[in-house]
Amino acid sequence: MWRRRSDNVLRCVAAVPLGYAVASAWAAALARVLPMARSEATVTGTLIALALCALFAMYAYGARSGWRAIWVLSLIGLVAGGIVWWSIATTGRL
What we know:
Elements: H1 2-33, H2 38-62, H3 66-91
């Protein structure tokens, strides 16, 4: 019983706050790397991240376990963070 409850709690954590944070990181990454004007890239990245947020939440509840959902979403977020870091390091603008 406790294992099932803790798995549900982990899935909720993966779906809502972690899914939102990872989608926000991808919005920032896409806004920096898309080849268009800054304002258009920001809007496009945000719209894509909105769809990603829903996909991340669906994945969190479809994964084999709550821990797996947390690890996979964390790795996806680290990739987005790496893209943002690389972009800032090479271009130098925020």
